[in-house]
Amino acid sequence: MATELDVLIANNTLKAKAFLDEIEGKKPLFICTIATTETGKIPGLSAAGANPDFTDFTPPADAELLLLGKCKSIQGVPITPDGIPTPGLITTSALHLADIPVLVVNGGVKVKPQIPFVDLGGNSGRDIRTGDSVDNVEEVIERAKVLGEQMAKASDYLVIGESIPGGTTTALGVLSALGVNAEGKVSSTLLQNPHSLKGEVVREGLTAAGEKFGSLKNNPIKAVSCVGDPMMPALAGLVIGGARQVPVLMAGGTQMTAVLAVINGLEPKALCNVAVGTTRWVTKDKSSDICGIVKQFCEVPVLAADLNFSNSRFPGLQIYETGLVKEGVGAGGASIVAMAKLGGAVTKDLLLKEIERNYALLMGLK
Amino acid sequence: MATELDVLIANNTLKAKAFLDEIEGKKPLFICTIATTETGKIPGLSAAGANPDFTDFTPPADAELLLLGKCKSIQGVPITPDGIPTPGLITTSALHLADIPVLVVNGGVKVKPQIPFVDLGGNSGRDIRTGDSVDNVEEVIERAKVLGEQMAKASDYLVIGESIPGGTTTALGVLSALGVNAEGKVSSTLLQNPHSLKGEVVREGLTAAGEKFGSLKNNPIKAVSCVGDPMMPALAGLVIGGARQVPVLMAGGTQMTAVLAVINGLEPKALCNVAVGTTRWVTKDKSSDICGIVKQFCEVPVLAADLNFSNSRFPGLQIYETGLVKEGVGAGGASIVAMAKLGGAVTKDLLLKEIERNYALLMGLK
Prior knowledge:
Two copies of one chain form a homodimer. Chain A is an alpha/beta fold. Chain A has a single domain, classed as 3-Layer(aba) Sandwich (Rossmann fold), CATH 3.40.50.10210. The first copy, chain A, has helices spanning 13-23, 58-68, 88-97, 137-154, 167-177, 195-208, 220-227, 231-243, 255-266, 280-283, 290-294, 315-318, 331-341, 348-363, and strands at residues 7-9, 28-35, 102-108, 117-119, 157-163, 248-251, 274-279, 302-305. In chain A, strands 1-8-7-6-5-2-3-4 form an eight-stranded mixed beta sheet, sandwiched between helices. In chain A, helix 9 (255-266) links the parallel strand 6 (248-251) and strand 7. Chain A is globular, with a radius of gyration of 18 Å. Chains A and B meet through strand 3, strand 4 and helix 4 of A and strand 3, strand 4 and helix 4 of B.
């Protein structure tokens, strides 16, 4: 690689470097996949919204932020119960700096965003404790493949992020159903990762579905239908369709490992053209283990944007360094590709300046 | 221009050549905008469907044909009452030959296509004789602008077609409301252009809306709301958003002149970056006058793919030479950009071969 980017490599170094080499200077399309579930409303599970009921508004508002630079479905921007702003702020800043186009894809949301979005025929997800959480999985995957193929023709490569509250719990659900040991390894928006609550919810879901750890190893579609979420079929299909022609960066944290596992069960060769792009806050997180999940079933490289907000002039951004939020809306992946597109002209410092500028603007600060 | 393409220039020769020069060898994105209306079901008005009620299925089926190479919402492909296949067959063949990506945008349809499509918050249109035919016009335009801007970042240029039965009648409606003399000048899928019926329907619509010829000259949004169709705000917004950054080819016949008039009223400078691309069957048509409409309010060039099916081995395709169908689903524009992308490697003869191949395949012929 010609330039040194502010990107950390978390595993599979050679593959990671090859992936970065391949995308450097190229023009990506950023796709944000949105979805909501009743799982995300289980108290104590997610901080992706000021309160559980508010999680229905977080994904549409994130999508609006990406396309309009402001939200329409809510006032201000999505925040955690502590008032910490959405990582969509990072994504928006990165994409704007590098002039990267955005397409919003609806995996299944309760509240439709007030912007153009691609519909795949999916619905919002039920609580996974029902054991029957997602409708129409196979059809959504098929439609997403078609979209991924078309968008791959229109771009040098794809970067695909997500906004779905409660997504690490459904990730644990699907990984467990597929026989991947992820308990205690998925990440969290919260400071105290509620691993035991997530484990309980997943076990309840598997039991309700008449399944157990690993029993759906050969049926990823059923795994998503029973204990997954509607982001998964959309994202998996997009990756499979896109990776047939171009590199695909899956922009997210441990949620992406569940999507990887689904792809691995459906079309494993797609993974040869795939990397995960996340943040340093995820790869350095002591309460989760993204690489420990990935290595159980594939050799996909994990890259991390070397974001550091310690020296931000805003306490609301500094707090990311404590481990709150960590990732979401493809923040890490968007940062990586903004840097890769402009080959070093976008550094982590420049990116922080742009994030601070947008933060001040959106929070009404100076 | 380096190569001689099978493209005819119908007006504004210098601008037309400059546009062709600009797009030659470049990579476009093809956007198909679909919509349906009750206007399209008025007996005798449209042949875009085996019978009036069937027109609800024509646009979704056309969109499926473009993305999947076959329809899902109907058996076979959309046909006229005489059994002539949809011009979407031409579009599909052209885009496939030149490997051009497709995005489907829903302006407002009653029957949703079973493929990925972009939603803009629009609804299917009412009969324009109500004088209140389209909901949500301003919002759909705004959302379409956002999409057009994003897709312009992802492509060298945009080609935007339509599938909407009855669209020349609503075109006449909007042109009339805007004070453009189009009576007797809009095209038709039928051999006998039902000009007097179209004129009656439009007059009834204008009267019901409390408007008359030219009375909405300064209010294109109201003109569309009263006597237009849901394809128009979607397409106008896409063009305005896209043309800010890249050339835009509006792929269609006289329907596009109504969209041009709307854009001319909203953001006239967008028209500097725009051309209309249609078929020879439209520009040579004696029962309509696309250039005669355009020249009343702008200098946008009109290009025509020099398609000629006289020597086709299939009577169902030869019949296009009698003046049936003529255009639709961006057939002319798609043919032009397939030729322009591959600079002469795609000729009208090669294109006809591919159309015949697909025709035989889809109609179960040999």
